[in-house]
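Q: What structure does this chain adopt?
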Amino acid sequence: MKSGLLRTVFWVLFAAFLAWDYAASPAVDLRWELAPISAGSGQATRGGHCSMPD
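A:
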């Protein structure tokens, strides 16, 4: 009984965290993300997607 309650509390808190994170995070701009198929091809970049301007 106690492990079932702990499991339920964990999943409720986890779902609440995901909902908060989704609401608090800025939207992802897919134009600035590197396409996985092109990773490692072509000229080396100077920085990753984290160094691009906002």
